[in-house]
Amino acid sequence: MKLKQSTMMTILCVVVWACVFQAVSCHLPGDLRLVDNGYEGLVVSISEDLPQQHCNQILHGLKFVLTEFSGELHKATGGRASLREVTVALPRTWQTDTLSCSLLGPLNSAAVPTSVHLRVSNPHPVFGANPWVQQSQGCGHHGDFIQLGSDLLRATKNDSYIHAAKMLMGVWPKFRWGVFDEQGYNDDPLYPAFYRDPISGEMRINNCKDEQHPICDEHDHVPEAPNKHNAQCQGKAAWEVIMSSQDFKDKRNIPTNSSKALIPKLNFVQTGEPRIIIVVEDTAVMNLQKRWEFIRKALRRVVVYDMPDDIYVGVVVFNSVARTTASLAMMDSVSDVRQRIGSSMPRNPSSVPEKHKCLLCGIQEALRALDIDPQGAEGATIILLTSGAGATPKREIDEMIRLSTVRGIHIEAIIYPFIEQQTEIVKSHGLEKLVSTTHGSTFTVMDEGVGNDSKINMMMSLMNSLLATVRKACLMSSSGASLMIHSKAYHGGESAVARGSFTIDDSIISDARFAVYYYDITHVGNTLELTTPSGNIMSSVNMQEEDGDANVIFMNIPMAERGEWHYQVENRADSHQGLQIEVTSKESENRKIKLHVWINSDNGANNSSDPIIIYAEIKDGMLPVLNAKVTAKFQQLGMNANGKEYSPIYFDLFDNGLGDPDITEGDGVYSRYLPILSHENKDLTHYELGVTANNNNGLAIKPLNNILSTKTQFFVENKNKSCCGSTIEYEHVTPIPPFQRTEMFGVIGLLSNPSGEDTVPPNRILDLQADINLESHEISFHWTAPGDDYDWGQANHYEAVMAASLADAFKFNGERINGMPIPLNVGVEQSITINTTKYDQLVYVVIRAVDEVGNHGEVSNMVSIFVSRPPTTTTKAPPSTSLPFMDFNDMSNDINSRNSEIVRSAGLKLDDMAIVIGSVSGFLIIVAVFATFCFFHVARHQRQHHKKNNEILEVNKNSMVKSNSVSMFNENERADSEGVTMKVVEVKSVKGYPISSMPSWSPSILLQEHEKRCSVTSSPPSEDDEILTQYQNFQDQFPELAQNGSHSYPNSQSPSITQSDPPAYQTSYTSEVFDGYQYSYNPGYCHEELPPYSPQGMCSQTSQFSTKYSHETPQHSPDLNYVPNTNPYQNKILRGVSSRYGQSNTSAAMYSNNHQPKLAPPVSPKPSLSVHTTIANTEPMRRNITQV
Asked: What single string gives the DSSP state of each residue in 540-606?
């Protein structure tokens, strides 16, 4: 529904913004800059999972690869860019003073990287050790990071390093400049491997004309090719996108006269323990209501209960001057340091007016407190807690930015309290610039008071904001800050008992803390019970503890039982107060599930032309979590007219790969546009954003990183299939045990549109596909329905055109396709079928959605259509009716062309007919005579052979009884085997046991022959390996069966105030790889221990089917002898990747085809069995030999 006149549409205003800082991944690579044709600030991080004994190899290989990469970059950009300076962050656990880890330069132990651009880690389950880029945003936006397998850096030949540098150059344009792959992929429905050339009409490979160059320029660019880059960038050449980037636009970094690239300098740093200084404003503004008391309670709660051991913490307060109240000290659980620092705040605030406060004084005092530490200030975090009001001179802001940059510190800001202004846009007087410069984040705590009291919501918001900033600073800590498992508010006066549940899973340690926060101790009744997953009731009488300095009653649960816990707490709070129940724990060392939240905004200037997209990345270690339920909570701050909180809005994020906004399916990045909201005539409204993720009631899965196995490593490296187009497909996945994570992003300010007009269009369609019916020459188009306001709601109608040229298609010029279906809810697949007589010519079709006020979405991805002219021996009957959805003048004579064909006939004279009949009769007589002769000749030959065999049988008096082994050969294929003569023999019976009339051998000869043959699973590769490879290649010819369906959007497309149902997106998975066998293992039966995630049922045998629809752009052209691409700038990965995280190619071939490879049998032919075989059936079996 659109906004009424009493409400106003909101757009993002200029407010306090910052990218959420992550020590391992920051989505604002501002530290990486191109200065005088040289990149500075590139940060390379080596994973903690890599062993130290590989240190020297990795560092040597890294220096060689980066030097070669600098040359490749210089050559690819025409001398505009190369690599000047690189920072290498070593794992904290590596000992750099040993022989196994000799550094190439000095080590700086104090510097902590503000962002990571290149990750060196273990191999990826799909990309292996090859470099790849995670791209969460569209064309022209930088990637999230580059990941590189350490195996590429441990090579022993320079050629391997050079090849690695070329592959790194191949992914750099995607990471730095936001371009995409200009190539197709086998079996990809959106970006096929082949397409029809518009000029020649022939099928060609879907790639750049000059595939040996890492950047496709305007000359070699193919704008009509159906690849990911053309879809995302609307046909622009990659070089055009690159030259419009911040690195090169406005004639920046023009080519130099130097003919050589820069040699990068490597600076080595090692992450130390986090150092935090909390700087608190102490002015008269904090003396109102409970503001100062809440600050003291929040600081004590976080320092005493939530901060991990081994980090360093100090406290500074400031007004017109600044002073240190707690010197920098290391946290531990033995001494009284936590109590001392947690109680270091003054009991009462000062009377200094707010206008006299000195922010610069607070920052300078914090730097002096950090200088006491031998490591200095570099890499430390300053948490600035201030009201944000009052005039801060610009010179002080500039000086704070200079100090932060020079000293290398990060600033996290908490605006407390924030008084909402009705007519004024509050920018916090430069704080947003200070925070964004240091890659920090900003949180806002709204002022919520009733008379002289402040609401408990205000205290909890302050506590959670402080905890969130500490967690960001402690990401590199060995133990990490407290992890929020469960948090829920219970308002007073609604229910006498607060009931709820939470889950303890194996991703956290077994110790947990159950806490009840209150405004007044009398608000908590006497009943406080916990019920374990096994049903035992734990009373808090002998377990609970109270801390009045933090307004909390808590229970420590050591060795907590895994599973779902239930609680009930007596709630005696007043109607304007309430209780807050939270459960916290620590993350497990063995299993680390990370939830990272950010938005697409890089600065404070946002409007309707730059819509807000919410991103949430979920990783289990380094592996993406698929099928998770990711729910965003968006709640307006403040109180409504009734003096109560605004109801929160819940909506799901999706990893569906539809292209707008989610780029690639299966990367573990879930995204969605922020809904268009309305509010009651307020110019500025603040919302708090948080995201929760869980295992989706058991549907969540993750890929198995079987590439780590050394037994399969060589097998993976020789494959030639590249990845990935619209989705990342994994060969083996496994279900994820229960988990739940919550991450707070911060506050978003929305400004209403004074005109109240709807200016928000539908989102872009990027999955348009076309199928051609080869019999009736019908064309079927299908796509996923977009929304009305971006990906929300339901559009009004569709517009589609069929253009004769690519330029017209991008401009949406051409013949309109009428009768388009009515748009359905966002995420539902739709289709239309049309007829055409446009034969032997290439046309382009595009589509877009339009809302009720005329806002139209951007033009969709383009599909090209080519229909061959039907044979001239047949003609179409005149149409009886016309289809309502076609209005082409040159197609009107072919509408409804599925009538029966009229076969032309010509009259024959009587003499001609007699000649024809006589010729046919004579031919039939000759055939009959020849067939009779052949019959008697063959029968006579068989009788003689049968008599000879009987004579041999009488002489030998022995026979061979065959074992009941499974054969891999079809009966009609045995005759084609080399050196084997197929004979049909008669089986006789002696004393009730069948014997064969075929020649026999003694047991010793048979056993000797058997021992000569090696087993595939127990011997090194032999000639059988070639046969098995042929068998797999044979199966690859048969495509997997894909399941079509709507995408997982909620049924209701309006923002919901309750948790929506889990998405319907559900995929299948296969069993784990068989470690003892170098090929994909698929037993062909169900594992009873695995839950049935597959909608089709993995045990069910899929029936073979056929369809008369075929894609215009086939994956393998019959006109081409396809040679595997050897482009060094493109990654090659495992071919056995299956569709939608389902079964492997082996199992797909098993279910869809009964053909078997042709192999020479080791012994005499055996009767074939009608079974579906797998690779496992090729293992030779020992025969049972019986001498009669």
From this structure: STTTEEEETTTTEEEEEETTPPSEEEEEEEEE---TT-EEEEEEEEEE-SS--EEEEEEES--SS--
φ, ψ (nearest 5 deg) of residue 925: -65, -45
**Range in 172-181, 322-331, 939-948, 1051-1060 the model is least confident about:** 1051-1060
In our burial notation (b when 16+ CB lie closer than 10 A, e otherwise), range 90-129 reads bbeebebeeeebebeeeebbbbbbbbbbbbbbbbbbbbbb
User: What pairing do the DSSP bridges indicate for beta strands 322-330 and 265-270?
Assistant: unpaired
Among residues 574, 531, 529, the alpha carbon closest in space to that of 553 is found at 529
User: Which residues have a Cβ under 8 Å from the Cβ of 325 and sit 6 or more positions away?
Assistant: 315, 316, 317, 344, 345, 346
Q: What is the DSSP string of 1007-1042?
A: HHHHHHSPPTTTS---HHHHHHHHHHHHHTTSPPPP
The model's pTM is 0.71
What is the Cα–Cα distance from 865 to 837, expressed in whole angstroms?
12
Q: Which residues contact 6 (CB under 8 A, 6 or more apart)?
A: 680, 681
When pLDDT is cut at 50, 70 and 90, the band that residue 970 belongs to is very low
| Three-state DSSP class for residue 717 | helix
Name the class of domain 482-587: mainly beta
The answer to whether the 482-587 and 769-903 domains have the same CATH topology is no
Domain 769-903 top-level CATH class: mainly beta
Q: Alpha-carbon torsion 821, 823, 824, 827, what sign? A: positive
Domain ranges of the chain: 33-178+245-270, 482-587, 769-903, 921-1012
Cα within 13 Å of Cα(9), Cβ side: 17
The answer to whether the bond into 417 is cis (omega within 30° of 0) is yes
Nearest to 1134 by CA among 25, 126, 33: 126
Q: What are the tens digits of pLDDT across the range 411-447?
A: 999 999 887 654 444 455 568 788 888 888 888 888 8
Q: With 90 as the cut, is the pLDDT of residue 38 above it?
A: yes
pLDDT for the residue numbered 506: 84
Pick from 1032, 1071, 1066, 1041: which is nearest to 732 by CA? 1071
Q: What is the mean pLDDT of the chain?
A: 75
Residue 813, both tokens: 């010029």
Alpha-carbon distance 656 to 767, whole Å?
11
DSSP 114-171: S--SEEEESPBTTTBTS-EEE--S-TTSPPSEEEEEGGGGG-SSHHHHHHHHHHHHHH
Residues contacting residue 580 through CB under 8 Å, at least 6 positions apart: 456, 457, 460, 487, 488, 489, 490, 516, 517, 518
